[in-house]
Amino acid sequence: MELSRRRFVGAGAAIAGVSAASFIAPPARGLVAPAPAPPLVPAAVAARPAAQTPLIAEALAALEMHATRIGKRDRMAVVDFARPSSEPRLHLVDIPTGRIARSFLVAHGSGSDPLRTGVLQRFSNQPGSNASSRGAYCTANRYVGKHGVSQRLLGLDPDNDMALSRDIVVHGADYVDPDLIAAQGRIGRSQGCFAVEPHLVETVMDLLGEGRMIYASKLA
User: Phi/psi at 50 (nearest 5 deg)?
Assistant: First the structure.
């Protein structure tokens, strides 16, 4: 996907309870302030024990590390890039219980899987890499762009701190389609964004809201 034409509403703090010094950005580029958290959308199936216990433990440690920058701590998203793209691997996790409430298909970047294997091979934070980045993100404001309604992300770690300038966002994409899994064994690739099924993108963004964490990693 070509994201270079996006115009930012701005860049700045979009995290509830965070001081201006916590996120320094160019002047006159303030992101939209977080809205009140929407109610949790009921899961399609009953919540189940976390299947990726080590990854969720790593995500919870990251949540504590970034405690001053994550305003909402009731739930988070954990993206398990050790799993192939044919499997739902973006998990909404209830933080108090550590249980997965709902899971979604999500793409990784073409630069992370140049041979189209359906499995992420590497991470990159470099502009132009078209790769996915590892680490903790804070969800910011929604906007309408090339791919319809989308949600900006603030990268909180050295491995993903270029997310805002790289236009790494949550959005829907036609290439995230279960029919592609049946045909070719994998979904398509993004340019580093967390692309989900188009008809589910607003559900994902409602669940995440603003000021919550997405944590992406790949454990051996």
Answer: -60, 125
pTM for the model:
0.77
For the chain, list the strands marked E by DSSP: 75-80, 90-94, 99-104, 135-145, 148-155, 169-172, 194-196, 213-217
Which residue, 140, 114, 111, is CA-closest to 127? 111
Domain-wise residue ranges, the chain: 43-217
- Candidates 197, 191, 193, 186; CA nearest to 214 is 193
HSE-up of 199 (CA within 13 Å, CB side)? 2
- Enter the DSSP assignment of 39: P
Give yes or no for a contact between 63 and 72, defined as CB atoms under 8 angstroms apart.
no
What is the biggest distance separating any 2 CA atoms in the chain, rounded to whole angstroms?
49
pLDDT, one tens digit per residue, over 158-214 is 999 999 999 999 999 999 999 999 999 999 999 999 999 999 999 999 999 999 999
Secondary structure letter of residue 111 according to DSSP: G
| Element counts in the chain: helices (H) and strands (E) | 3, 8
C-alpha torsion angle, residues 150, 155, 161, 166 (rounded to 10): -10
Beta bridge partners of residue 138, listed in sequence order: 154, 213
Q: Which two tokens stand for residue 11?
A: 């860049």
Class of domain 43-217: mainly beta
Q: Quick one: which of 153, 149, 198 has its CA closest to 172?
A: 198
